[in-house]
Specification:
- By secondary structure, the chain is α/β, with parallel strands linked by helices.
- Helices cover 41% and strands 20% of the residues.
- The protein has 8 helices and 12 strands.
- The strands form 3 sheets. The protein has a 5-stranded parallel beta sheet, sandwiched between helices.
- Strand 1 (2-6), helix 1 (10-22) and strand 2 (26-30) form a beta-alpha-beta unit.
- The longest helix is centred in the middle third of the chain and has 15 residues, at 105-119.
- It is elongated and about 50 Å long.
- The mean pLDDT is 91.
Length: 222
Protein backbone atom coordinates (compact mmCIF):
# COMPACT_ATOMS: atom_id res chain seq x y z
CA UNK A 1 0.00 0.00 0.00
CA UNK A 2 1.12 3.55 -0.72
CA UNK A 3 1.61 5.93 2.21
CA UNK A 4 2.82 9.50 2.71
CA UNK A 5 5.70 10.03 5.13
CA UNK A 6 6.11 13.60 6.46
CA UNK A 7 9.39 13.96 8.38
CA UNK A 8 11.93 16.78 8.22
CA UNK A 9 14.86 14.94 9.83
CA UNK A 10 16.85 13.52 6.87
CA UNK A 11 18.40 10.61 8.74
CA UNK A 12 15.20 9.56 10.47
CA UNK A 13 13.13 10.04 7.32
CA UNK A 14 15.52 7.97 5.24
CA UNK A 15 15.50 5.20 7.85
CA UNK A 16 11.71 5.19 8.12
CA UNK A 17 11.27 5.13 4.35
CA UNK A 18 13.74 2.26 3.94
CA UNK A 19 12.28 0.29 6.84
CA UNK A 20 8.69 0.67 5.73
CA UNK A 21 9.61 -0.28 2.17
CA UNK A 22 11.20 -3.45 3.51
CA UNK A 23 7.88 -4.19 5.21
CA UNK A 24 5.88 -3.90 2.02
CA UNK A 25 4.85 -0.24 1.90
CA UNK A 26 5.25 2.11 -1.06
CA UNK A 27 6.49 5.34 0.55
CA UNK A 28 6.42 8.93 -0.72
CA UNK A 29 8.49 11.19 1.57
CA UNK A 30 8.17 14.96 2.01
CA UNK A 31 10.05 17.12 4.50
CA UNK A 32 7.89 20.16 5.26
CA UNK A 33 4.31 21.02 6.08
CA UNK A 34 3.50 22.88 2.88
CA UNK A 35 4.60 19.93 0.73
CA UNK A 36 2.53 17.64 2.95
CA UNK A 37 -0.57 19.75 2.38
CA UNK A 38 -0.06 19.65 -1.39
CA UNK A 39 0.33 15.88 -1.42
CA UNK A 40 -2.67 15.26 0.81
CA UNK A 41 -4.79 17.34 -1.58
CA UNK A 42 -3.44 15.70 -4.72
CA UNK A 43 -2.85 12.00 -4.02
CA UNK A 44 -5.11 9.24 -2.61
CA UNK A 45 -2.77 7.69 -0.04
CA UNK A 46 -3.80 4.69 2.04
CA UNK A 47 -2.40 6.42 5.16
CA UNK A 48 0.02 9.10 6.32
CA UNK A 49 2.77 9.19 8.95
CA UNK A 50 2.99 12.78 10.12
CA UNK A 51 5.64 14.51 12.22
CA UNK A 52 4.47 17.58 14.14
CA UNK A 53 7.57 19.79 14.31
CA UNK A 54 7.79 20.66 10.60
CA UNK A 55 9.25 23.63 8.74
CA UNK A 56 6.84 25.73 6.71
CA UNK A 57 3.71 24.62 8.54
CA UNK A 58 3.22 22.75 11.79
CA UNK A 59 2.01 19.18 11.54
CA UNK A 60 -1.13 19.82 13.58
CA UNK A 61 -2.07 22.66 11.23
CA UNK A 62 -1.49 20.34 8.26
CA UNK A 63 -3.74 17.73 9.83
CA UNK A 64 -6.47 20.21 10.73
CA UNK A 65 -6.49 21.62 7.19
CA UNK A 66 -6.70 18.15 5.67
CA UNK A 67 -9.61 17.16 7.89
CA UNK A 68 -11.51 20.37 7.15
CA UNK A 69 -11.04 19.64 3.44
CA UNK A 70 -12.67 16.24 3.92
CA UNK A 71 -9.59 13.99 3.95
CA UNK A 72 -10.52 10.66 5.52
CA UNK A 73 -7.26 8.73 5.22
CA UNK A 74 -5.82 7.34 8.48
CA UNK A 75 -3.13 9.59 9.94
CA UNK A 76 -0.54 8.34 12.40
CA UNK A 77 1.23 11.15 14.24
CA UNK A 78 4.89 10.38 14.90
CA UNK A 79 6.56 12.95 17.14
CA UNK A 80 8.91 13.70 20.00
CA UNK A 81 6.17 15.63 21.79
CA UNK A 82 5.21 13.15 24.50
CA UNK A 83 3.24 15.33 26.94
CA UNK A 84 -0.34 14.22 27.48
CA UNK A 85 -1.84 17.56 26.34
CA UNK A 86 0.07 17.26 23.05
CA UNK A 87 -1.28 13.77 22.47
CA UNK A 88 -4.82 14.83 23.33
CA UNK A 89 -4.62 17.81 20.99
CA UNK A 90 -3.30 15.67 18.15
CA UNK A 91 -6.10 13.14 18.54
CA UNK A 92 -8.74 15.85 18.83
CA UNK A 93 -7.51 17.57 15.67
CA UNK A 94 -7.97 14.35 13.71
CA UNK A 95 -5.11 11.91 14.25
CA UNK A 96 -6.06 8.24 14.28
CA UNK A 97 -3.01 7.10 16.25
CA UNK A 98 -0.12 8.75 18.07
CA UNK A 99 3.38 7.30 18.47
CA UNK A 100 6.27 8.92 20.33
CA UNK A 101 9.79 8.76 18.86
CA UNK A 102 11.84 6.64 18.80
CA UNK A 103 9.53 3.96 17.40
CA UNK A 104 10.15 0.33 16.54
CA UNK A 105 9.63 -0.18 12.80
CA UNK A 106 7.72 -3.42 13.24
CA UNK A 107 5.31 -1.69 15.61
CA UNK A 108 4.93 1.26 13.23
CA UNK A 109 4.16 -1.08 10.32
CA UNK A 110 1.64 -3.02 12.43
CA UNK A 111 -0.12 0.17 13.50
CA UNK A 112 -0.35 1.33 9.89
CA UNK A 113 -1.78 -1.99 8.73
CA UNK A 114 -4.37 -1.87 11.52
CA UNK A 115 -5.39 1.69 10.67
CA UNK A 116 -5.78 0.91 6.98
CA UNK A 117 -7.80 -2.28 7.41
CA UNK A 118 -10.15 -0.58 9.91
CA UNK A 119 -10.59 2.33 7.50
CA UNK A 120 -11.78 -0.24 4.95
CA UNK A 121 -14.15 -1.92 7.39
CA UNK A 122 -11.94 -5.00 7.77
CA UNK A 123 -11.72 -5.93 11.48
CA UNK A 124 -9.58 -9.05 11.06
CA UNK A 125 -5.82 -9.07 10.54
CA UNK A 126 -6.11 -11.63 7.75
CA UNK A 127 -8.31 -10.97 4.73
CA UNK A 128 -10.28 -13.89 3.33
CA UNK A 129 -12.56 -14.42 0.34
CA UNK A 130 -13.39 -17.37 -1.94
CA UNK A 131 -10.82 -19.68 -0.35
CA UNK A 132 -8.02 -17.09 -0.60
CA UNK A 133 -6.43 -15.83 2.62
CA UNK A 134 -4.06 -12.84 2.64
CA UNK A 135 -1.81 -12.23 5.65
CA UNK A 136 -0.48 -8.65 5.28
CA UNK A 137 1.97 -8.92 8.18
CA UNK A 138 3.67 -12.02 6.79
CA UNK A 139 2.96 -11.00 3.17
CA UNK A 140 1.73 -14.53 2.61
CA UNK A 141 -1.18 -15.94 0.60
CA UNK A 142 -2.91 -19.30 0.74
CA UNK A 143 -5.55 -20.86 -1.53
CA UNK A 144 -7.70 -23.45 0.25
CA UNK A 145 -4.96 -23.77 2.84
CA UNK A 146 -2.10 -24.22 0.38
CA UNK A 147 0.60 -21.53 0.09
CA UNK A 148 0.75 -19.55 -3.15
CA UNK A 149 3.88 -17.73 -4.27
CA UNK A 150 3.23 -14.19 -5.52
CA UNK A 151 5.55 -11.44 -6.68
CA UNK A 152 5.64 -8.18 -4.70
CA UNK A 153 3.36 -6.40 -7.18
CA UNK A 154 0.96 -9.34 -7.39
CA UNK A 155 0.65 -9.42 -3.62
CA UNK A 156 0.09 -5.67 -3.41
CA UNK A 157 -2.57 -5.78 -6.11
CA UNK A 158 -4.38 -8.69 -4.46
CA UNK A 159 -4.18 -6.91 -1.09
CA UNK A 160 -5.76 -3.78 -2.58
CA UNK A 161 -8.60 -5.77 -4.14
CA UNK A 162 -9.19 -7.73 -0.93
CA UNK A 163 -9.29 -4.54 1.16
CA UNK A 164 -11.90 -3.20 -1.25
CA UNK A 165 -13.83 -6.43 -1.77
CA UNK A 166 -17.20 -5.71 -3.33
CA UNK A 167 -16.05 -2.37 -4.80
CA UNK A 168 -14.79 -1.78 -8.32
CA UNK A 169 -11.27 -0.37 -8.51
CA UNK A 170 -10.08 1.46 -11.60
CA UNK A 171 -6.71 0.82 -13.18
CA UNK A 172 -5.58 4.28 -12.01
CA UNK A 173 -6.55 3.51 -8.41
CA UNK A 174 -4.63 0.25 -8.52
CA UNK A 175 -1.56 1.94 -10.02
CA UNK A 176 -1.66 4.53 -7.26
CA UNK A 177 -1.72 1.72 -4.70
CA UNK A 178 1.20 -0.13 -6.30
CA UNK A 179 3.71 2.57 -7.24
CA UNK A 180 5.46 5.36 -5.33
CA UNK A 181 7.22 8.37 -6.84
CA UNK A 182 9.88 7.63 -9.40
CA UNK A 183 8.75 4.08 -10.10
CA UNK A 184 8.07 3.45 -13.78
CA UNK A 185 4.58 2.22 -14.55
CA UNK A 186 4.16 0.31 -17.81
CA UNK A 187 0.90 0.94 -19.61
CA UNK A 188 -0.38 -2.62 -19.18
CA UNK A 189 1.18 -3.37 -15.78
CA UNK A 190 -2.12 -3.84 -13.93
CA UNK A 191 -3.53 -6.09 -16.65
CA UNK A 192 -0.40 -8.28 -16.52
CA UNK A 193 -0.58 -8.62 -12.73
CA UNK A 194 -4.29 -9.46 -12.88
CA UNK A 195 -3.56 -12.14 -15.51
CA UNK A 196 -0.94 -13.72 -13.25
CA UNK A 197 -3.24 -13.64 -10.22
CA UNK A 198 -6.01 -15.35 -12.17
CA UNK A 199 -3.60 -18.03 -13.30
CA UNK A 200 -2.41 -18.70 -9.74
CA UNK A 201 -5.67 -18.21 -7.81
CA UNK A 202 -8.40 -19.07 -10.28
CA UNK A 203 -9.88 -17.32 -13.28
CA UNK A 204 -13.08 -16.34 -11.46
CA UNK A 205 -11.55 -14.59 -8.46
CA UNK A 206 -11.06 -11.17 -10.08
CA UNK A 207 -13.80 -9.89 -12.37
CA UNK A 208 -13.30 -7.34 -15.14
CA UNK A 209 -15.90 -4.56 -15.19
CA UNK A 210 -15.65 -3.45 -18.78
CA UNK A 211 -14.73 0.19 -19.21
CA UNK A 212 -14.33 0.69 -15.45
CA UNK A 213 -11.82 -1.60 -13.77
CA UNK A 214 -11.62 -4.73 -11.62
CA UNK A 215 -13.74 -6.25 -8.86
CA UNK A 216 -13.08 -8.93 -6.28
CA UNK A 217 -16.60 -9.91 -5.14
CA UNK A 218 -17.39 -10.42 -1.50
CA UNK A 219 -18.10 -13.94 -0.29
CA UNK A 220 -21.83 -14.69 -0.40
CA UNK A 221 -21.77 -15.28 3.36
CA UNK A 222 -20.45 -11.76 4.04
Amino acid sequence: MRILLVEDDPLLGDGLRAGLRQRGFQVDWVRDGLAAERELRAEPYAAAVLDLGLPGRDGLAVLATARRAGATLPVLVLTARDAVPDRVRGLDVGADDYVVKPVDLDELAARLRALVRRAHGQPQERLAAHGVVVDPAARAVTLHGEPVSLSTREFDLLHALMLNAGRVMTREQLEQHLYAWGQEVESNAVEVHVHHLRRKLGAGLIQTVRGVGYLLPRDAAS
